[in-house]
Amino acid sequence: MKHKLTIIVPVYNEEDNILRLEQELMRFIEVATVPISVLFVNDGSSDNSLSLLRTICQRHTEFELLSFQKNEGLSAAIKAGFDHVETDLVGYIDADLQTSPEDFNLLLNHIDNHELVTGVRSIRKDKFVKNMSSRIANGIRRAFTKDGMDDTGCPLKIIKTDYAKRIPMFKGLHRFLPAMVLLQKGRVLQVPVRHFPRTAGKSKFGLWNRLLGPLLDCFVYVWMKKKYINYEIDKTD
Fold this sequence. Notes:
alpha/beta, Spore Coat Polysaccharide Biosynthesis Protein SpsA, Chain A, about 15% strand
């Protein structure tokens, strides 16, 4: 069976979530509306995550693993996934399972008419400080990018792979994926998805990389937007 969608799952020190992650992904593969493969990207984990991921990949032919030598960050893990996949569609979900793989089906309903479909966490299950810092960061980013997206931090997205591979990634760019697709004249859409409390492991984001970091990244985006090259080959010749 030829896979249609590859789901990238960046993993950094999530040993307490790995086995449940396997179960949730296998459950989704059974009900997915298109054939699915999964690509784990181990981001230099220092716990037992890598060993667990290797075992899972040995158990299931639908699963594959890339592993960094050291921690490189979320954007690097997503970029490595984009470079590696060969399916028509590429998706992304966090390993903490605060979003459900089954909600990829909601995004797949719209991907034919869009180049990127992203989830938006309509009812957040995070603590007050995390919710407020995320809301402020999203407001700042919208002011800079004019992308119209309410929640680019939602870790549930599907992109047409040829668009994903043309995104010039830099650290922090995972927050700007819709804006980068818009620069390619692509169509973007946000769809409400479920959100769940974190039940195991620890968040890798604090006030700096949830609020102040994204503000600095906005200036990088503005510079890159001015320099961005976008063209189409004339196919009539």
